[in-house]
User: Fold these one by one.
Assistant:
Number 1:
Amino acid sequence: MFKGNFSLNLSALEGLFKAKMPPLIGVDISSSSIKMVEISEPGKGLYRVERYAIEPLPKDSLVEGNINNLDAVSDALKRCHKRLGSNVKNLALALPNAAVISKKIMVPAGQTEDELELQVETEANQYIPFALDEVNLDFQVLGPAPNNPDDIEVLIAASRKEKIIDRLAVAESAGLKATVMDVDLFAAQSAFELIEGQFPDHGKDQNIAVVDVGSSIMAVNVLRNDQSIYMREQPFGGNQLTQEIQNKFGLSPEEAEAAKRAGGLPENYESDVLQPFMDMMGLEVARALQFFFTSTQHNQIHHIVLSGGCAAIPGADETVGKRVQVNTLIANPFVNMTLSSKIRPKSLTQDAPSLMVACGLAMRRFDP
Ligand SMILES: Nc1ncnc2c1ncn2[C@@H]1O[C@H](COP(=O)(O)OP(=O)(O)OP(=O)(O)O)[C@@H](O)[C@H]1O
Ligand SMILES: [Mg+2]
């Protein structure tokens, strides 16, 4: 079944994607920063983090996944790559979830590749709200249909060409090359698979909510046996905390952002600003789980994996776990990897929750 080893086939655009994969860097262009991760495989199934880097993005250069300022993003990409210090120039990038429509369809088994392609296009026409020549269509056969042996299940993904073109363009103007185009959600799911070994029975038949609290969006993706059974995004994130710090202590956005991570704020910060924010985070997670229970037939979450920059706030796991009474773990997809001697383990552990997408993308290098 779908294991997240899916990347959009851009061959229609660039003819890039059939060749065997050379080394590549996973690059997450997110609203607050660019994150890069490079992973190697020194032994079969043994991974090693070679390098990683995080470079802040100027405010509003990326809004809701749309690149608003191509120059700003490409400059930051260049800086990030320089900081990374790698000679690898091939990148695996991802599209925001909202730029991609994906849908499972059933089609008769036993068709040729050409027939299948035609059928997928016909089906896609029915639910994609824009002209087919504006989209890139890709599909992956998932396997036999669960209810009918004569059918197969196919996952279709359609994305607006302009979103892909923007990402190819920023890479190119930074002197780099996008060779894989994935989707945020799928990349994060691949990273999740590096974590699930920590759950009893590897999480089999359990509902595991991956809750990502970033700078502006909180995304909840409930997985069961490595398949997404529920997904919801809502506005909530670390920007609210930064804003509060600015207001309360009269700091600039940059100062507030730095103080939040480095500490050194007045004594009443914890009680007056941080604690209310943490309580709100617990409440938002509780609400999101309620939505999950009311809109599916499920009534239990077995574990929560907390990711995104806000998961790095000390005590985030405890606050959320206590509020919703579910075992809560801070995401670290590198937990079973060795580290290059240049990486400080403590820094990586701190940054790991916000590197889920970049890590999942870096792992694309090892896809068969
Ligand atoms: N150590 C830390 N302590 C407190 N907050 C942190 C820490 N590290 C990161 N953050 C906060 O996390 C947020 C960034 O998280 P992340 O990188 O996951 O967001 P993003 O992916 O860019 O945003 P979004 O997912 O909303 O598009 C910022 O608000 C930042 O201040
Ligand atoms: Mg994010």
Number 2:
Amino acid sequence: MSRSEQDMKDLLRSLTLAAGAPGAEDEVRALVRENLGGIGELSYDSLGSILCEKSGEADSPRVMIDGHMDEVGFMVQSITKEGRINFVPLGGWWAHVLLSQRVDIVTAGGKVPGVIGSTPPHFLSGKKREQLLGLEDMYIDIGAASEEEVSGMGVRIGDTIVPHAEFTELKDPDILSSKAFDNRVGIGLMIEALLEFSSRDHPNTIIGVGAAQEEIGCRGAVTACEKAAPDVGIVLEGTPADDIPGFNEPQAILGKGPQIRFYDPTAISNRRLAELVAAIAEKAGIEIQLAVRRSGGTDAKSIHLHRAGVPTVVIGVPARYIHSHVSLISWQDYLNTGRLVRELIAGLDSAAVESLTDFS
Ligand SMILES: [Zn+2]
């Protein structure tokens, strides 16, 4: 039974609004569990990654569909006498995007809203106005006047913090705005792939993985691979769109379709697999974008080095302004990436996967 676009969009909405700083992916994991319970066999690694294994017509090849569950966030580092909260980043942030932004502190007793404090221009000398503030000089204001009030609100050192966001369609309803498209698009598409194949044959075993702790060094993918034992890896990512000022030859334009990443400094996609994905896209009439990235990295870093090596490819949905409170994607890109992944899975039988690593 194929899912309506509204079902798919509702799932993506709840995924992006869920809190999931690295090491605290609980809300995202719960959504994966809720959607995939009964579809395949669920298991977990000891860092909190969730796996859903569904066998098709054959036990092998084992096809790992990986998306990381975590998003860039922060952690409460200390609390001042005046009731201000200092924090450390979990993942890559540019300080420019943070002042006066709303955040949610995830405490044992629930979410506590706060604002990253900023100094009004009235109090800024000319020189200070031009400075970029470091994260260590910023603080979160939750409306408390003392350390005691902060702890009375349930906030403790070590609590995680995520951006506060809304999920909206822009005037052009194809363009969606929310936090954490990096990488809830990957989680959403991983779930959609398993739902699709729950009522359809496939010549392999699919292991859908929601990996923990990608944003701080692709850690959950290392441990998830031990459980998944993949023969081939497909990494689904919200990849940074570069259709912004300063790029002459963009490789991730909103609305131009899924991106196939050949290279970033952490991994080289298996060439035959990347070519296969491109050929499948062409046959299916899906426009794609090819990328060779000068920076960045994905879970492919960990997956392709598992054991004797795993042929891996990174497929991305371009997302503008990631690692901030608001990012933008094209809904058509999301749908087309889903189509491409389905076509790919349907074609990955043992002969196809063996040929990826036949170097004899
Ligand atoms: Zn990511």
Number 3:
Amino acid sequence: MNETLNVLNNRMSLRRYKDKPISEEHLEQILYSTMRAPTAGNMMLYSVLVIKDKEKIKKLSSTCDNQAFIAKAPLVLIFLADMQRWTDYFHHCDTPYNSPNNADLFLSISDTMIAAQNAVIAGESMGIGSCYIGDIMENYETHKEMFNLPDKVFPIGMITLGYYPQNMKKTLRPRFNKEYIVFNEKYKRLSSEEFDDMFKHLNDNFNPNNSFGAKNIGQLMYFKKFGAPFFKEMERSVNVIMEHWNK
Ligand SMILES: Cc1cc2nc3c(=O)[nH]c(=O)nc-3n(C[C@H](O)[C@H](O)[C@H](O)COP(=O)(O)O)c2cc1C
């Protein structure tokens, strides 16, 4: 295995960090690699917020579904899908462009998250672990105010970053089998038997006395994620983001 594959295949989401700030040199390297990510039309339809202020990070830990570990991260990067810069520039150049549409939305989200993953991997290669925080999509109004975001800019990704604690044993979380994720030539919907096999490793460890009252893994995942209160907030917040986007 080469060094690149080694870093990719041994990354894990890190939620506990060494109590040490990220060095300026490492931060610059992460940001440089972030900006080297592929980007549609070489337009860089994103912006990155570098957050070191402890009070802001603490506030993010509560606005992002009260995840306490966020407050202990020495550094947070917020990845903003950004069509404001190009909208303003197109206006500046007297083009017929009015405001972003749904295609621009998809492209800028793609750009933004591809750049974010470069940051993750650059960090990982230097002993800096990270964790994505999808809950940054919640509480849009608060984040808009907190970070001075115009209408055509919204947070789509966030990562916490920090050095790995000393002697930490990495745990790599299992993935679904390749046959259920990667298809040759055309898409395939899964049968009941295939689902049973796909989720077997999770069902084998399923606790029927779980606090959610779930009777199987599908119900557990639903109650924990898509049916959970934080998801309702995410849906509400994203709808407000879209109202501003489509203004
Ligand atoms: C879009 C996205 C959002 C995520 N949001 C959160 C989050 O809010 N809190 C958290 O602790 N982990 C979050 N994660 C991390 C996932 O839980 C983690 O990637 C997954 O469990 C697999 O574990 P691994 O990254 O260690 O392989 C997120 C990951 C992604 C890609």
